[in-house]
Amino acid sequence: MKGNVYFRRYWQLYALLVLPLAYFIVFKYGPMWGVQIAFKDFNFFQGITGSEWIGFDAFREVFRMDDFYRTLRNTIVLNLLDLLVSFPAPLVLAILLYELKVVWFKKLSQTILYIPHFISWVIIGGIVYQVFGTQSGMINNVLTSIGFQAIPFLTDKNDWVITYLLTGVWQSAGWGTILYLAALTGINRELFEAAEVDGAGRMKRIWHITIPGMKTTIATLLIINLGNMITIGFDRPYVIGNVAVRDYSDVLSTFVYRIGMESGQYTLATVVGLFQAVVGLIFVLGANYASKKLTDESIM
Amino acid sequence: MSERTANRTFDIVTTILVAVAVLLCLAPFIHILSISFSSNRAITSGEVTLFPVDFNLKAYGKVFSDMSMIRSLGFTVMLTVITTVLSMLMTMIAAYPLTKKNLKGRKTIMFMIVVTMFFSGGIIPEYILVRDLHLLNNMWSLILPGLISPFYLIILISFFNGIPESLGEAAEIDGSSQFGTLIRIVLPLSLPVLATLSLFYGVGRWNGFQDTLMYIQNPDLFPLQLKLYQMIQNNMVSELSRLEGASGAKITPEGLKAASVIFATVPILLVYPWLQRYFVSGVMLGAVKG
């Protein structure tokens, strides 16, 4: 009867869990079950179970595709460059914000700096076009009016990468300061006073107190970023990319969309998606392991 | 240089640097805003940078007289509200039981949920699932697949865990049911984090794009982002065709595009300041504990 008592006390909790669990089973585990498409000659009429097994044939085909290696390279290169450019930006910004003494100005700046994070990539794409466009973009208008050559930000491959990176900084630098500022609130103010008494200038205090105060956060975020090297969002490269720069803008997620949704090669697209998911998982687990070793803090 | 002047200089320099960052952050918005208020002639001749030239409201007149645009806005608002409400409901009812340490099977369920944060079937199996459920070209295809974010769920669980257990126990002794405790004690104490997660769910749906591209073909069900994307895409095509000396792409006038971008951004800018003080603390909570 013990079980009965337990159940009488807790049935409501299980009742609450029914719908959420159903959600996870259908919409999260359902697609995991559907991953078998990667090993099948998938055909809509026969469905997932009815389609014929083909083993690793589709994998062999994918690993023979030049496009696969190109998108893999682009994914990693764009992520690495993004890390190089976008990672230090919020750090510097957080230090500057932390040093501000005028409270209203600090609050106002933060409010404004967070906004781009809440703007969709589609809208950023629209803004990018108006700002960086070759014919009528703001920057090129200014450049040509003072006698310079227009820069083909959107249509030249190398210039496009710069556009891609700059929009990343613009979108995320402000938002990225939140975690650093959170870490900085934990610093004991007395440290600064003591340093001042010892004659340390502002730069010295930043170097010896502020930056060490963010050390764990920096390390953790760096590791998370490295763990995400192979995953890349769809919206940003898809919206900002275009046919002229496809050699550089086509990444794994847009590649999966293109061969799956546009060309209807479901099996091949699932293979690429599965590759990305498995390699991504290995990266994330590796990052978590590294994080545990280095900072005593696990991400999970 | 005396120490005081050094300090003053330092303060001035940091203030200027932050001000520059803020301006760089705002400049694209101001530019788009000016474009939306300028005449087509001024825009195409490149006269507009940070201030409107030939101020007029024609572009907005067009946006607001375009019924499909208004309908799309209405649909997106409705979609966002429904998604936010349902997502929050589901996240709350999932989080509460999972804070009970002696709930049998809790660890297994947690593990099941955490797994989905790191591994997923990918977009093709998701698409096939949505298709098999007959949800293509149906607004539920944009609501159901992302109903619960495991990440937000874990943030909520850790927040609930911070509420003293004795409060719930006291209520239970007083005869409160589990539902009662959740509604009368736990939720009222969690308002900041509930507001944060609502904002995140809402903004996520408002800005969502890839799923609309995959699941919606019927123009009557185009959310704003998809509509905007098509306008912008036309632009890219025209830019490229000009480059190659060809033409024929349908070009949306710049002013109209700018006005549409503003039109789709304003709603977020309206709710954002009200929720900001909550989400800053909410994010920090997620960062420290999650």
TrEMBL record, chain A:
Its main location: membrane. One of its GO terms (cellular component) is plasma membrane. The keyword Transport applies. One of its GO terms (biological process) is transmembrane transport. The chain crosses the membrane at residues 12-30, 76-100, 112-132, 161-185, 206-227, 266-290. It is found in: Cell membrane. It is a multi-pass membrane protein. Signal peptide: none annotated. Keywords: Cell membrane, Membrane, Transmembrane, Transmembrane helix, Transport. InterPro entries: MetI-like, MetI-like_sf, UgpAE/MalFG_permease. The keyword Cytoplasm does not apply. Gene3D superfamilies: MetI-like. Residues 72-287 form the ABC transmembrane type-1 domain. Belongs to the binding-protein-dependent transport system permease family. PANTHER family: BLL4140 PROTEIN. This is Binding-protein-dependent transport systems inner membrane component. It comes from Paenibacillus terrae (strain HPL-003).
From TrEMBL, chain B:
The chain crosses the membrane at residues 12-33, 73-96, 108-130, 142-160, 181-203, 258-275. It is found in: Cell membrane. Gene3D superfamilies: MetI-like. Keywords: Cell membrane, Membrane, Transmembrane, Transmembrane helix, Transport. PROSITE patterns: ABC_TM1. Pfam families: BPD_transp_1. One of its GO terms (cellular component) is plasma membrane. Residues 73-275 form the ABC transmembrane type-1 domain. It is a multi-pass membrane protein. InterPro entries: MetI-like, MetI-like_sf. Its main location: membrane. The keyword Transport applies. GO terms for biological process: transmembrane transport. Belongs to the binding-protein-dependent transport system permease family. This is Binding-protein-dependent transport systems inner membrane component.
